[in-house]
Design a protein that fits this description.
Length: about 250
């Protein structure tokens, strides 16, 4: 994260709010959302606060798996938005999600991009196996949904063995994007919305097919006592909320 509104880093959220819960007032609503939702949720935060005077949204952006670990460890989160079903399924299995509040709110896609000023001109995924391509950024599949989706795409292209030695793991899709925009890698797999966010800093190569639908679920956290949590989820699903999300490149659920 380079720019923050009321965004709190993962470690600070877990430690500060767990050890000193009085820091957050009853009117504060804590929303933990996948890193790829950063820009869109900052806009949703502002518009929701304007519509609900007295309510302040505290946003926390990171890889979905990392956010789940925070909730599991007791971080006082009210709303959780994941970039994949697997992470939310795990949250449900551990009874961390309020029954009946889970809903898919957007879809996304995985794309292959490279630095805009790269001298290597990739025409497709098959070119990643060429010797001149040394480093390829990808989210760590253990905790980053974009990494898991990308791994599926690599497998479908039958490039798993050829690309494995070249993969550079990142702790979030935004870190993956940073590696590409800074020219630290020759290419990277990111969400389509992140590529849009980067604009002219990256060169689009191709859309990446995946075996799993790239659908994002959102839900109220079971431990939340804040009545505004469900209202925020409803707002995300509303026509106004969906319009904001679509403006950042997300598709209807």
């Amino acid at each position: 994260m380079r720019k923050r509104l009321v965004t709190i880093p993962a470690l600070v959220l877990t430690l500060a709010l767990c050890l000193a819960p009085g820091l957050a007032s009853a009117a504060d609503l804590t929303v933990s959302a996948a890193a790829s939702l950063t820009d869109a949720f900052k806009v949703l935060k502002d518009s929701f606060e304007k519509a609900h005077p007295g309510t302040t949204i505290i946003t926390n952006f990171a890889a979905s798996g990392s956010l789940l670990r925070q909730i599991e460890n007791g971080a006082p989160v009210d709303v959780f938005a994941s970039a994949d079903q697997k992470t939310m399924n795990e949250a449900v299995e551990k009874k961390l999600i309020a029954t009946g509040t889970r809903v898919d709110f957007v879809q996304n896609g995985i794309v292959l991009v490279q630095p805009s000023d790269s001298k290597i001109h990739l025409k497709g995924m098959a070119d990643l196996a060429k010797p001149e391509v040394k480093r390829i950024a990808i989210g760590n599949p253990a905790s980053v949904p974009a990494g898991r989706y990308s791994t599926e795409g690599i497998a479908l292209a039958k490039l798993t063995e050829a690309l494995q030695p070249k993969l550079v793991p990142a702790e979030s899709v935004r870190q993956t994007l940073d590696y590409v925009t800074r020219g630290e890698v020759d290419a990277g797999f990111v969400f389509a919305t992140d590529a849009k966010h980067a604009g002219a800093k990256v060169r689009f190569v191709q859309d990446v097919s995946t075996t799993t639908k790239v659908a994002y679920p959102i839900a109220v956290v079971a431990a939340s006592k804040n009545p505004m949590a469900k209202r925020f989820v409803d707002y995300v699903m509303s026509a106004e909320g969906q319009k904001v999300l679509q403006s950042f490149g997300f598709k209807k659920p």
